[in-house]
Specification:
globular; 237 residues; seven-stranded mixed β-sheet; Glycerol-3-phosphate (1)-acyltransferase
Length: 237
């Protein structure tokens, strides 16, 4: 079953939670707890509208009170609500600058603690990583980033970029690898039709202690994260 109307309802749901977030920011009342509730409601409703069935494993790897650099593969825009419903922790996303240009939604993302990454501007990209480090160390948030940098058109894992790994090393924060398998079948990259009733698997892997790595051994760290994510990816079998 597929539907274009699901995307329309998703846009309406996004606007519904974005407007009060912007209003709170304008009046100085923004706080993470309220934003968390809105993000939970938003992501839950988007999955319900698309009739997505989640199969989640590995939640025992998430220690309470810890902040992580969450790294996952990226198959679809539906990865975003899937991650929020799967992890059960306070998390914000480092997202490409194009998402922040979407009217209303982009402003609400900034106001709720999301981090804009402009890869075309090295200075701004470095500033974004500094903000992410503050979110980790001072605000106690986990930071989610897709190291591929863009959605996979085939479901296969693309090449990794280094920015998120440098962030983890600089902050001393463990990396939490996550495999998302099946969102590409819900909404493909560039697609406009949502295929309802699909099953999406989310596998949360054991955290990786980055203090055992340095910038000189960054490639080893990247390979280890890649191996974890790819181990449960259908397209890699």
């Amino acid at each position: 079953m597929f539907s274009l109307g699901v995307l329309v309802r998703a846009a309406m749901e996004t606007t519904r939670i974005s407007m009060p977030t912007i209003a709170d920011a304008l009046t100085g009342r923004t706080n993470y707890t309220v934003c968390d509730r809105r993000l939970d409601s938003w992501s839950r409703n988007l999955l319900r509208q698309a009739k997505i069935s989640l199969q989640i494993s590995g939640r025992e790897h998430i220690a309470k009170g810890r902040s992580f650099v969450v790294m996952s593969n990226h198959q679809s825009h539906y990865d975003i609500p899937v991650v929020f419903q799967s992890l059960g922790i306070r998390v914000r996303m480092i997202a490409k600058t194009e998402l922040f240009r979407i009217p209303i939604m982009g402003r609400a993302m900034l106001d709720s603690g999301f981090i804009e990454l402009d890869r075309s501007n090295r200075r701004r990209a470095l500033e974004s990583m500094k903000v992410a480090k503050v979110r980790l160390l001072e605000d106690g948030l986990s930071i989610w980033i897709a190291p591929e940098g863009t959605r996979s058109k085939t479901g296969e894992l693309g090449e990794f970029k280094t920015g998120g790994f440098y962030l983890a090393l600089d902050a001393g924060a463990p990396i939490l690898p996550v495999t998302i398998d099946g969102t590409i079948d819900v909404l493909s990259p560039g697609g406009t039709v949502v295929h309802k009733g699909r099953t999406v698997r989310v596998i949360i892997h054991e955290p990786i202690d980055v203090t055992r790595y340095t910038r000189a051994t960054l490639r080893e760290l990247m390979d280890r994260v890649r191996e974890a994510i790819e181990s449960d990816l259908s397209s890699a079998r």
